[in-house]
Amino acid sequence: MYSIDNKKNYNSLLEIGYEKLLKKTTLNLPRIAIEYKFTFTHVYNFISVTNYLKILPDILGEYIKNELGMRSYTIKQNILSLKGRTNLSNIEQTIKQYIKEEKLCNNCGGTNTFKIKIMNVKKIKCNDCIDMRECI
Question: Does this model's pTM top 0.70?
Answer without folding.
Answer: yes
